[in-house]
Write a structure and sequence with these properties.
Chain lengths: 89, 152
């Protein structure tokens, strides 16, 4: 069992609108060691978070400003961002 | 070294071309792509497009895409400018310039840069319709296909 990790979580586009927050500092319980586990835990924070993560196939993630996937490990102090597939250009 | 800018202000395509070529005579061709706000989406009138981005990541992602273009083609200069904020129909969104000694590298690098930017840079578009409704633009499979043709 790993220690609790303080993390900064950012939400963009409709994930920000559904969660109702652009940025939050969270300390998930011990055992949340990768992106997939964090998503499971975040989805339980509010009805808005549950709505934001309802369809995980359309949620993308970056850890410390690099694209990440569900298996990407997390470390104390990481910046984890959740957003829909990008649509720039 | 690419010139990468993310800004709310408009850009001047002619001035950027001039900046890329100023004082040099080794360039033989410059590829140029300008993306602009179209006034319709799926047959509906658009009042405005709002571009959101992830500031801490955006310039880094664009620099990585430009570095990949410079690795694949012999470029003599490269410019990527992407606007954010609320943009009216007809407004400029993005500028991509790629300069090389020969046209093929310039044109291919330009297409590569915009294709990769569309699938790998953290920007999101929200369309505001004339009736006030607003919806997030969904990623298109054709964009993913366009980016995939460069994988090798």
């Amino acid at each position: 069992m790993s220690d609790a990790l303080p993390l900064t979580v950012l939400y963009f586009a409709w994930l920000r609108e559904r969660t109702g927050v652009a940025e939050e500092r969270v300390v998930p319980p011990p055992g949340i060691a990768n992106v997939a586990a964090l998503v499971d835990w975040l989805a339980g924070r509010s009805a808005g978070h549950a709505a934001a993560f309802a369809d995980r196939a359309v949620v993308r993630c970056a850890v410390n400003q690099e694209f990440a996937d569900p298996a990407t490990p997390l470390h104390a102090g990481d910046e984890v961002a959740f957003f829909p597939p990008v649509t720039g250009g | 070294m690419a010139r990468i800018l993310v800004q709310t202000a408009d850009f001047d395509t002619g001035a950027e071309l001039g900046r890329l070529t100023a004082g040099r005579s080794d360039i033989g061709g410059i590829g140029c792509f300008v993306g602009t706000v179209r006034d319709t989406a799926a047959g509906r009138k658009i009042a405005a497009l709002t571009l959101e981005h992830y500031p801490a990541m955006t310039e880094r992602a664009l620099a990585a895409i430009a570095a990949e273009a410079e690795r694949r083609w012999e470029l003599l200069g490269c410019t990527v400018i992407h606007r954010v904020g609320r943009l009216a129909p007809g407004a400029n969104i993005v500028l991509v310039l790629a300069a090389s000694a020969h046209r093929q590298a310039a044109l291919e690098a330009t297409a590569f840069l915009i294709d990769w930017l569309k699938t790998k840079a953290p920007f999101w578009k929200k369309e505001e319709l004339a009736d006030g409704a607003a919806t997030w633009v969904e990623a298109r499979e054709t964009d993913t296909d366009a980016a995939a043709r460069w994988s090798a």
